[in-house]
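For the sake of clarity, the format in which proteins appear in this thesis is described at this point. Each number in the token line that follows is a code from a learned vocabulary of backbone shapes. One such record is shown here in full, so that the layout can be seen directly:
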Amino acid sequence: MSERTEITLADGVRLHAEIDGPRDAPVTVVLAHGWCLDRRTWRHQVDALRGLGRRAPRVITYDTRGHGRSSATRRRSATLDQLGDDLAEVLRRLAPAGPVVLGGHSMGGMTIMEYAHRHPDEFSGRVAGLLLVSTTAEGHTHTRYGLPESVAGVLRVGETLGAGVLARSGAWRPHRIVLPALAPALRWLLFGDQCADDALGLTLRGVGRASLRSIGGFRASIGAQQRLDTLAAFADVPAAVLVGDRDRLTPPPCAESIAGALPNARLTVCPGAGHMLPLERPEEVSAALVEVVRRANRATRRATRAQYRKAA
């Protein structure tokens, strides 16, 4: 059974989290979702980790500020800097000790990179593995929306202006009546060749729970972040990097540059898939996560045996 909990951050924002798995698990997995989504993006991966039996890790999924069941964020706090600090606090409160595997989809991957940048000692001392899915370390450098560069540039300008308007629209959330009208655009933007009805429905419900301030407010820092150097400083961390070859937001060059900065990373390009890999290609994402967790478990067992031998 999953345990639901909330933590209150220093600025009063409440983060909703769900915890699954044994309390004495040797490794804890923390999964961060993407922009305008929520923790349910990871439902298939949580199920897969439960299936590891005695080797199952502790699993924490949480809703980013301004998303899902978490409370709204102030406009000035709708930044990746803040999300990196929020992740640090999630770890301190809900997984205060032991090795962790961090998984991030889209903005969630950028959150992990920001945590590594802002809290390098904590990152190096705790993180035993990484899963980076449909994300980038180079802002909007490679984002073309699957369109010619001239058209993409115009669309990016319009998106940026629209994001600024939404950021000033407060904590209102899109009304559920509006969501079906968004379905065709989100289907085109976020999914590849195939899109199951339940995957699109879950995505729409996530968008419906994100405040307009969050939908618009995070856009500026997402477009500007540059963290390849940060990743290169942690090149020895086992990692899996996945991307769809039809991803219009974080196309394959984003994943390739991340894998280049992480020599121990295993890069997987999913043919025909778009941006929503945890829902589009759950088996591939789950298999990659399980393998990273197994590697972290083996490393933990080796470290424990070494400590016993040293003590003896």
Observations:
- The chain is about 45% helix and 15% strand.
- The chain has a mean pLDDT of 88.
